[in-house]
């Protein structure tokens, strides 16, 4: 009985020493968020959605700009103005003013929408990278995982592990949709 108590005491001692060693030497990993945004399947999807939105907004601005240019050229063409009635000339000036205001409105919306969309992409990706980092932390027994931007110097870059986890999460999330599409 004394022998088993003695063995148990020694086992507990070694366990506490090992635990104390882990606390003295935490295992810290570092993740490059920008690389996760650029190279993960989620990040590529978010960038693609952002580019689609940007293209739609640019097309709207370009179309209005084209109309504005056409009206402006008509207003600067004295022969064209002479051929118009006073009401027609006033109508053209009103259209120019309306298009100018519309153009200004679209440009402001363009920048606001893109800024909001960019913030949404970053927030969404931060959430996804945090979830992937948490899974990597548990699987590889890290005590902490930091963003590269929070460090001046580091050794354990685990970006590839987090990227792999992000892509695994992406595939799991999109697997049911792919099965439905195939059926």
Secondary structure layout plus pairing:
Elements: H1 2-24, E1 28-31, H2 33-39, H3 41-76, H4 78-83, H5 86-140, E2 144-147, H6 159-182
Parallel strand pairs: 1-2
Q: Whole-number average pLDDT?
A: 87
Q: At the third CATH level, what is the topology name?
A: Protein Binding, DinI Protein, Chain A
How many extended strands?
2
The CATH superfamily is known as Skp domain
Q: Which series of helices and strands comes N to C?
A: HEHHHHEH
The CATH architecture term is: 2-Layer Sandwich
Question: What is the distance, rounded to the nearest whole angstrom, between the alpha carbons of the first and last residues?
Answer: 66 Å
Can you give the helix content as a percent range?
Answer: over 70%
Order of strands, widest sheet: 1-2
Q: Summarize the main sheet.
A: 2 strands, parallel
Rg calc: 31 Å
CATH class: Alpha Beta
- Tally of separate domains: 1
């Amino acid at each position: 009985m004394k022998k088993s108590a003695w063995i148990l005491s020694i086992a507990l001692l070694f366990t506490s020493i090992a635990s104390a060693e882990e606390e003295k030497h935490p295992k810290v990993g570092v993740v490059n968020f920008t690389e996760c945004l650029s190279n993960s399947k989620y990040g590529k999807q978010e960038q693609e959605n952002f580019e689609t939105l940007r293209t739609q907004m640019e097309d709207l601005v370009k179309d209005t700009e084209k109309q504005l240019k056409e009206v402006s050229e008509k207003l600067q063409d004295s022969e064209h103005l002479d051929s118009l009635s006073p009401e027609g000339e006033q109508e053209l000036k009103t259209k120019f003013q309306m298009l100018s205001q519309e153009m200004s409105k679209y440009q402001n919306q363009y920048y606001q929408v893109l800024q909001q969309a960019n913030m949404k992409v970053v927030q969404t990706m931060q959430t996804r990278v945090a979830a992937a980092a948490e899974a990597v932390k548990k699987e590889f027994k890290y005590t902490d995982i930091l963003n590269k931007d929070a460090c001046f110097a580091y050794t354990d870059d685990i970006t590839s592990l987090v990227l792999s986890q992000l892509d695994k999460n992406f595939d799991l999330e999109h697997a049911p949709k792919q099965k439905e599409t195939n059926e």
